[in-house]
Amino acid sequence: MKQKRKRRLIDLDVQGALARRIILHWFVFLAIIALALPLWQVWSNGFAGEPFSALMLEAWRQTAPVFFILLALLPLFVMDTIKLSHRFAGPMYRFRQTIRRLAEGEDVDFIRLRKGDFWKEFAEDFNAMLEQIDSRKDAATSEAGKDEGLSVG
């Protein structure tokens, strides 16, 4: 059964930074295209004796649909970036929560990541560490039981 994520933003610092960066890149791309497409069109059509401003206005009129398409795509780019970031922000969130619980002395379960998540090798190492902690705790408990048994007699 596929586990669905309940929250869109798991780690606002990381995922917010990614969203801001993709928006910045998109605007830089848009600005470059906004300058390059009309200039390219003017250059490729030649000046033909018309004023540069008239040529640029006509080029903008012809390329305007491209900008509306790009504008419509921006939310999709941002949402896809946030969805992708779930694959690494989600596991890190789970690791942090588990480490905090472990530090408070609680018993914790092994980390099991979703299909497609990043950090699977880290999860395996983390789970191996949990096994070591459990085995040492069991050994210490067993040793303490032996010591109590010896001192009773």
Please, could you describe this protein's structure?
- With 153 residues, the protein is mostly helical.
- It has one domain (12-148).
- Helices cover 78% and strands 0% of the residues.
- It contains three helices and no strands.
- It has helices spanning 12-45, 52-103, 120-152.
- Helix 1 (12-45) packs antiparallel against helix 2 (52-103).
- The chain is rod-shaped and about 105 Å long.
Q: Unreliable stretches, pLDDT < 50, 5 or more residues?
A: none
Number of helices: 3
As a whole number of angstroms, the C-alpha radius of gyration is 29 Å
Q: Beta fraction of the residues? A: under 5%
> Sheet with the most strands?
none
Tell me the number of strands.
Answer: 0
Pattern of helices and strands: HHH
* Helix-strand category: mainly alpha
- The overall pLDDT, averaged over residues, is 84
The CA-CA distance between the termini, in Å, is 55 Å
Topology:
Elements: H1 12-45, H2 52-103, H3 120-152
List keywords for this structure.
78% helix; rod-shaped; single chain; mainly alpha; 3 helices; 153 residues
What's the short version?
78% of the residues lie in helices and 0% in strands.
